[in-house]
Amino acid sequence: MSSFFNDIAPLTYDPDADGLAFRHYNPDEMLQGKRMEDHLRFAVAYWHSFAWPGGDPFGGQTFDRPWWGETMDGARLKAEIAFEMFEILGAPYFCWHDADIRPEGATFEESKRNFDEIIDLFEEKMESSKTKLLWGTANLFSNRRFMSGAATNPDPDVFAWSAATVKNCLDATHRLKGQNYVLWGGREGYETLLNTDMGQELDHMGRFLSMVVDYKHKIGFKGQILIEPKPQEPTKHQYDYDVATVYGFLQRFGLEKEVKVNIEQGHAILAGHSFEHELAMARELGILGSIDMNRNDYQSGWDTDQFPNNVPEIALAYYEILKAGGLKQGGTNFDAKLRRQSLDPSDLIAAHAGAMDVCARGLKAAARMLEDDALEAPRRARYAGWETPEAQAMLTSDLATVAARVEGGGINPEPRSGQQEKLENIVNRYV
Prior knowledge:
The strands form three sheets. This protein has an eight-stranded parallel beta barrel, surrounded by five helices. A two-stranded antiparallel ribbon has the order 1-2. Strands 7-9 form a two-stranded antiparallel ribbon. By secondary structure, the chain is α/β, with parallel strands linked by helices. It has helices at residues 36-40, 46-51, 72-89, 98-101, 108-126, 156-175, 198-219, 243-252, 265-270, 275-285, 311-323, 345-371, 376-382, 389-394, 399-407, 420-430; strands at residues 30-31, 34-35, 42-45, 93-97, 132-137, 180-184, 189-190, 224-228, 237-238, 259-264, 288-292, 332-334. 40% of the residues are buried. The radius of gyration is 24 Å and the shape is globular. α6 (156-175) runs parallel beside α7. The chain folds into two domains: 30-371, Divalent-metal-dependent TIM barrel enzymes (TIM Barrel, Alpha-Beta Barrel), CATH 3.20.20.150; 389-430, no CATH class.
């Protein structure tokens, strides 16, 4: 054991505790016939918790971590401390990019050797840990080789490098029995159409994803393949802007039955949507896979990746998830980072513990709203007119026949209240 966390004991559920503890997250509490832990399926994001140095667009590193530096000794120490934190939190899952867990080598082969050694270490540690792998992914955006994209890069050598990297990461995810594999395409877009062949890039992106799906089946990987919708940053326009855009892309290449989405709260906001909108859209399209839980600073114009603290927002998100039947193979990954002034190791524990409590409160509120029919009853009442035989017949009829209902003077509709404020008041009673 290291001394990094200063012997912080594993957290327990204790609503009356003064120090570090869970006040609302009780893993064994039953909700709708399932343990709370099994509903929420929390995961720690390796990159923000252990690889992010505390910088922002205007300043560099503020954190001092004993594993800093591009060395294998540092990577091994990082893994040791990561699993200590998983144990303190009782985290059921974690997630990684390849670049988070190993130093970059001078060649692809050297990077792969470094990566494989850490995967060996993960496999060893997971044998005695309750923490499993929610998903793995490849970092195809940080290195300058990806400045013009990965699958959409105009250089075919970068396309090939990206394919080799994803193959390596998918192999490792399969080996560690990961539940999902995520493709994060922040660089899959363009800065200007002046130098971009959009049609060719979209075709290459579709072909790349088809290769990933084919390889998944070839190796027998049973996890979900997920795309993470990502708007506005770091490129000016991204091809995977939001859930609806991703679905259209999947349909075009015949992949809508093979690929689902990993939806991040912060990305939903950058796309001009609410989190619950993106979740509801994915549910209705049948592609809800997993979620990244965080929040943005609404006064900032970029993805600040803060830990969630807004219970009403979280309640509405889990309401849509519960309506979809839950996260299933997905989970709640804290793609969130400390503020750059939060320097202490204990801040990492406090941030995750608080976020887990916020999610627990939101989940409980969502479950009660569903059990009480608090929102669904007024929703059904609003659409009740469509239950009549005459209304249903319109949906299988032709335009002229439907128009005849009005032209014959038989109906003269009057507006009815949507009762938004009353419904908002209902939500507030639960949160």
